[in-house]
Amino acid sequence: MSFQDKSIQCSDCGDTFTFSAEDQEFFQSKGYTNEPKRCPSCRQARKSERYSNSSYGAPPANVPRNLR
Ligand SMILES: [Zn+2]
Predict the structure, then answer these.
(1) Is a pLDDT exceeding 90 seen at residue 6?
(2) For residue 44, how far is its CA from the centre of ligand 1 (angstroms)?
(3) Which long-range contacts (CB under 8 A, 24 or more apart) does 58-67 make?
(4) What is the CA(19)–ligand 1 centre distance, in A?
(5) Exposed site from 16, 20, 24, 27, fewest CB < 10 Å?
(6) With the CA atoms of 46, 52, 53 and 54 taken in that order, what torsion angle do they form, in degrees rounded to the nearest 10?
(7) 55 pLDDT higher than 70
(8) Does the pLDDT of residue 58 top 60, yes or no?
(9) DSSP code of residue 53
(10) Are the C-beta atoms of residues 37 and 13 closer than 8 Å to each other?
(11) Which residues have C-beta within 8 Å of that of residue 22, sequence separation ≥ 6?
């Protein structure tokens, strides 16, 4: 099976990023069926956010999750 680079719009910042054939292959090898919804930098930001949150043991109450 062959993959092709794909442009995806980040759902966080609205930027368009490339979901490369390489990444798609990687995703598939991991069994992920969903395409990434966020660009690498937003993903990274969320990841580090989650790590810092978990170290407090509870989500911060002052950040409304669904507020855009
Ligand atoms: Zn983004």
Answers:
(1) yes
(2) 9
(3) none
(4) 12
(5) 16
(6) 110
(7) no
(8) no
(9) H
(10) no
(11) 3
Tokens 């989650």 sit at which residue? 50
Q: What's the one-letter identity of residue 54? A: S
Q: Give CA torsion, residues 10, 20, 35, 13, to 10 deg.
A: -10
Q: Which amino acid is at 42?
A: C
Q: Which residue has the tokens 């993903």?
A: 43
CA distance 63 to 43: 18
Length of the chain: 68
How many angstroms is it from 31 CA to the middle of ligand 1?
A: 23
Q: What is the pLDDT of residues 13-52, one digit of tens each?
A: 999 999 999 999 999 999 999 899 999 999 999 988 877 7
Tell me, in angstroms, the distance from the centre of ligand 1 to residue 55's CA: 24
